[in-house]
Amino acid sequence: MVSRVIPVDDFDLVIFGATGDLAHRKILPGLFRRFKAGQFPATSRIIGAARTEQDDAAFQAEAAAAICDYTGTDKNDADLAEFLPLLGYVAIDAKGEGGWQELKSRMRPGAVHAFYFSVAPALFGDIAERLAGHGIAHDDSRIVVEKPFGRDLASARALNATLAKHFHEDQIYRIDHYLGKETVQNLMAVRFANVLFEPLWNAQYVDHVQITVAETVGVAGRGSYYDKSGAIRDMVQNHMMQLLCLIAMEPPYHFDPDAVRDEKLKVIRALQPVEPGDIVRGQYQGEGSDYLTDAEDPASRTESYVAMKVRISNWRWQGTPFYLRTGKKLRARTSEIAITFKAPPHSIFDDSGVPKANELVIRLQPNEGMNLKVMIKEPGPGGMRLVQVPLDMSFAEALGAEGADMPDAYERLIMDVIRGNQTLFMRGDEVEAAWAWTDPIINAWEDSKRQPEPYDSGSSGPDEALRLMHRDNRRWREIRS
Ligand code: NAP
Known about the structure:
The protein has 481 residues and is α/β, with parallel strands linked by helices. It has helices at 21-36, 56-71, 78-83, 100-106, 124-133, 153-164, 182-192, 223-226, 231-248, 257-269, 291-294, 395-398, 400-404, 409-419, 428-447, 463-470; strands at 11-16, 45-50, 87-91, 112-117, 142-145, 172-174, 206-214, 279-285, 305-310, 322-327, 334-341, 359-365, 369-377, 386-394, 453-456. It has two domains: 11-146, NAD(P)-binding Rossmann-like Domain (Rossmann fold, 3-Layer(aba) Sandwich); 179-408 and 427-470, Dihydrodipicolinate Reductase, domain 2 (2-Layer Sandwich), CATH 3.30.360.10. Helix content is 34%, strand content 20%. The two termini are 28 Å apart. NADP nicotinamide-adenine-dinucleotide phosphate binds at residues 16-23, 50-52, 92-95, 118-121, 123, 146-148.
């Protein structure tokens, strides 16, 4: 299969926070990979900005080291040598007035202008204000803002209002890197480019949906930061909400940014409040791997795990629960969505076992792909015996070299910013609606005196979460990579 790289226009991309972790791990390596793939012209400019005083050459050396570290590129790579001269640097304190005029002088008229705010959210307002105040941003400029987008509805609204003072909604790209993952976009292709699934994609045929995002890492090293957030803020309000929306939304009339985001918003607004009995929080524990130690607060009530039953109040999903779970220090690192269909209403195979329900599993990581479980006859003599087998597809295998070299989420999203395509970015009202649903869940917990359920590091989560399913006569899929 021939790799198709659709080139983008000449651009000037300013990365605020260019000396930080995200820039080193994702943004700069991602840009390099897109350059190497020939996706953008060598006339484009990438300008790093942060408080650290350094010149272009020092930033180029810093970027080269990060790219080599995170992409495995050799330091003498010919493409790297061509890429580095695209990089420049301006020392800027987001809260000060120095450096902005120099930045302005480096922006080329006629190129696409994008400003990536890869700094703490507390600085978003300062940067937006100074970009506008110094006449650097114009009506066509784009800004990219990182998560977390607020920590509750009030702060998200305030952030939206701050950005809206200087930028229109169609200039604001709120990143949720989950939306840039190849398989997440595949959810839309699977649903809306096939006739096979969509007729069954409703409460009449779907028994329930499970969405799992399991991590093996804990929070050691960034525990005091994580402890202010927890699994609901860190994963459910944003990433899992996006997955839920893509699974549950109605077909948009077109694959167009607002058409897609309108449909996602309708799902979020149709979410019922979560009953206290439908949610389980957990904290990992164990010798040398203990949340309370990692969080540096022996009295912390912040969850490192959450499982919940979510209901969507609309015609399509009335009566079909969505079970969400995510946690740290679990048995395996895996993200998947499993759609369990209803069992056939009647079995004609009296003595051969009851047909099991079909299940469609979409794996987001690792080994992105799809697995559809179907019933067949067990081969051999001995009459008609039924057995369930997987139709298993790994995208990397099915798509050959192109599948094996899928762009990282950040690479794709940055190229979409340059193209001016907001489909895979969250709109302001979407983020606010997600917080409006999440806030009462968080507030109810903060008002309660309960402690999270302990679970062993390396396990599948707390026993209480198993009971959440068992009482509905269902069970979680095994967490395995
Ligand atoms: P970080 O490693 O702490 O880097 C912060 C960057 O901001 C540094 O380049 C720092 O450089 C710069 N900075 C700090 N104060 C500044 C100021 N007053 N003016 C200008 N620049 C300033 O943070 P990070 O992990 O890269 O995260 C950046 C953003 O991405 C945050 O919003 C974070 O929530 C989000 N995010 C990060 C990740 C990740 O994996 N790292 C994942 C998802 C989202 P100087 O000290 O040189 O100024």
